[in-house]
Amino acid sequence: MSPLSTLTPLTVKKSSPARNRLRGGARYAPTLATVGLFIAMFAVGAGMYPSFLSGQVFLNLFIDNTFLIVLAVGMTFVILTGGIDLSVGAVVALSMMVSATLLQQGWNPGAVIVLVLLIGGGLGLLMGLVIQYFDIQPFIVTLAGMFLARGLCYVISLDSIPVTEGFFTGMAQAQIPLPGDLFVSPGVLLALGIVTVAFFVLHHTRFGRTVYAIGGNEHSAMLMGLPVKATKILVYALSGLCSAIAGILFSFYSLSGYSLAAQGMELDAIAAVVIGGTLLTGGTGYVLGSVVGVLVLGIVQTFIAYDGTLSSWWTKIVIGGLLLVFILLQRLFARKAG
Amino acid sequence: MKSLLKHRLAWPVIALAALLLLNQVFKPDFMSLRMQDGHLYGSLIDIMRNGAPTILIALGMTLVIATRGIDLSVGAVVAIAGAASCAYIAASPEPGSPVTAATAVLIAVVAALALGVWNGFLVSTIGVQPIIATLVLMTAGRGVAQLITGGQIVSVSNDSYKSIGAGYLFTLPVSILITAAVFALAAVLTRRTALGTLIEAVGINPVASRLAGLRARNIIWIVYVFSAVCAAIAGLMISSNVTAADANNAGLYIEMDAILAVVIGGTSLAGGRYTLVGTVVGAFIIQTLTTTVYTLGIPPEVTLVFKALVVITVCLLQAPKARNLLSRLKAAPKPAAQEAAKEKVAI
C-alpha cells in the first residue's frame, strides 16, 4: 500500500461524515481558513522559488514533523475536553533519553519501545488521576509533570547520547519510495496511521463523543450519565502515550537522546492545534485541522530555510502572528455563531 | 475571617520554615549574616537576591490571576526588556554614562507598558482567553527579543546599569530594595485603596462586577500593564546582573516559577481572593528549594525533580483542605458550584 493512498481517503473523509453530523458552516470556518492558508502559502512559495512546487517538498513537511503531528493529535484530545497538557515536550525528551540510554546498554529495541510507551502513558495516566481526583487545574499538574519529566532527563544524563542501534538507525535511513521519484519515511506512515485511528476514535466511538461533550459542557455531560471521570483521565493518558510515540519518532529522526531536546515543543503543539481550528475552551475542533496546523508551522520553517536571508527567530514571530490571526478569527466566528 | 487568612498562609509558611530549618541542620552557618566592605552577605541575602526577579514577576502575576487571568508572556517580556536596554546602551555614543543607563531603563519600561497594553487589549477588549492571548506574546516575544539583539548576546559595560542587578545600597543589594519597593507599592495601592477589592470583584464574577457599574475592562488593563512592568524590571535586573542580554535564555521558564509561587502562596487560579504576602512566601519557597539542593549536596541536575515533587506535595496538601472547607461551608456538592462559576465565564 502506498502512503499516498493513506493520504487521499483522509482528506476525503474530512468533508463527508463529519459535516453531516455537525451543522453550521461556522464550525468549519477556522479549519477551512487554515487549509486555505496552507494552500496559499504553498502557492506563494511556488511562485517565489521554482523548486518549491514539488511533491517532495510537500512530503518533507510530513517527514520533518512526524513527531509534532503525533503530539498535536494527543493535544487535540486534551484541548477538546477544555484541558491543556504542558508536559508533552518534556515527555518527548524523556522518551528519547530513556531509549538512547537503554539502547546503549544493549537492550532489545522492541522492549525499549514498549517500556517507553508504558512510561509515557503511565505519566499521563498519573497526571490525569491527579487532575480528576484532587481537582487541581490541568495547567498546574501538567506543569509539575513537565518539571518531573525534564528533571528525570537531567538525572539520566546531562550529555547527548548517540543512538547507534541497528533498528533505530535503519528506521532513520529507511525511505519508502512512492511513484514519481518521491519518498517518505516509515515514521510518516506511523504518524498518519495514528491520525487515522484518532479520527476514527474521535468521530465514531462513544469515547470520542464524550470528549466533545465534556468540552461543550462538563456538567451537562455528567448529568447525561456519560463517563466524564474516566474520559478525562484517559485523555491525559492518551496524550502521554502520544508524547512517548513522538519521542520515539524524534529518536528515529535525530538518532540521539538529549535532555534539552524538544524544549518549547509543547508550545508548537498547542499552536498547531489552535491554528488548526480547535477552540481552547474545548468542545470544537478536529484532529485533521491540527494536522494542517502542523503543516502550516512546517511550511513557515521551509520558507525561512528557502529564503536563506531570514533568521530563525522569524519563525517564532510568524507563528505568534499566525496564532493571533487565528485567535481573532475564532472570536469573530464565535460571536457570529452566538 | 482573620483566622481563615491565617489558615491560608499557614501551609506555605510552614513549608518555608521547614526548608530553612533543613538547611540550618545541614549547614550550621546558614542563617548567619556578615558584614564585608559595608555589604551584607549570607545565604539568606543570596536567596532574596536571586529570588528578586521571580518575586517581582510573581507579584504582577498575583494580580493578573486574581482577575481570573494568567500572563504567560512575562518570560518574553523579560527577554525584550533586557534586549532593548542592552541594545540601546551598546549602540549609544556614551555607553558608560548614567544618562544612557537611565534612558535604557526608560526604554525598557515604555516597551513593557506597550506590551502590557497589548495583552490587556486582547483580554479585555477582544475578549480572548488570557492563557491564549498571552501565549501569542510568549511565542512571538522571544523572537522579537532576538530580532533586537540580532541573535547575539549583547554585553554592555555601564556601572550605573550594573548596579540595578548587582549593586548595593544601604548595605543591601539594590535588587532586594527595588523588589521591596514594588511590593510596598502594590500592597498599598491594592489594600489601602479600593483597587484590591475591585480586582477581586472582577475575578470572582466579571459579569456581576460589570453590572454593578465597575469598569472591569480598565481593571483588567491595569493588571496586565502592571505585570508587564514588573517583568521588565525583572528583565533589567537579570540582564544587569550579568551585564548582557541573552534573548534566548533570559527569563526562560520564569513564568512557570512565578505561577508556581502564586499557587504555592495560596492564591487560587480560579481568581478572586489573592494574597501578595503569600506570593512572596511562595517565591521564597521556590528559591530556597534551589539553595537547599546545593546545601544538601544533591546533584544540581536533580533540582527539577525535587521541585516537581514539592509542587505536587504542596498542591495535594492544599487540594483536600479546600475541599473540606467548601463542604463545611456549604452542603451543596463542589462540582456543581464550580460548574456554575464556569458557565458564568462562558457568558
TrEMBL record, chain B:
InterPro entries: ABC_transp_permease. Its main location: membrane. It is found in: Cell membrane. The chain crosses the membrane at residues 47-65, 72-91, 97-118, 130-148, 168-189, 219-238, 250-269, 276-296, 302-320. It is a multi-pass membrane protein. Keywords: Cell membrane, Membrane, Transmembrane, Transmembrane helix. CDD domains: TM_PBP1_transp_AraH_like. The keyword Membrane applies. One of its GO terms (molecular function) is transmembrane transporter activity. GO terms for cellular component: plasma membrane. The keyword Nucleus does not apply. This is ABC transporter permease.
